[in-house]
UniProtKB/TrEMBL annotation:
InterPro entries: Rieske-like_NirD (IPR012748), Rieske_2Fe-2S (IPR017941), Rieske_2Fe-2S_sf (IPR036922). It comes from the Bacteria. GO terms for molecular function: 2 iron, 2 sulfur cluster binding; metal ion binding; nitrite reductase [NAD(P)H] activity. Keywords: 2Fe-2S, Iron, Iron-sulfur, Metal-binding, Nitrate assimilation, Oxidoreductase. It comes from Zestomonas carbonaria. This is Rieske domain-containing protein. The keyword Oxidoreductase applies. Residues 4-99 form the Rieske domain. Pfam families: Rieske. One of its GO terms (biological process) is nitrate assimilation. Transmembrane segments: none annotated. PROSITE patterns: RIESKE.
Amino acid sequence: MTWLDICALDDINLLGSRIVAGPKGDIAIFRTSDDEVFALDDRCPHKGGPLSQGLIYGKRVACPLHNWQIELESGEAVAPDVGCAHRHDVKVENGRVLLALKSMAACA
């Protein structure tokens, strides 16, 4: 698997995100308060709202349009809502955020 160097972890604010142009649309990389990183397509499964503009809490992001709650680990909407934002592999090595675009993982 080839990893793309995106930025330093500190370049993404705590509880913030960064947008990366992917081959099938924008990808949002999220940073939690515990310095964990997650990457999802920047489209809410409900109406396509920009998840990168949503509020991050714990390991969830709230879509800014209709407040759908999306699990950052899986991309799954929290019940009673149903849907999925595609997840991408992302990791932090030596303080750098790395993204694997070829490994788009569908929801379970």
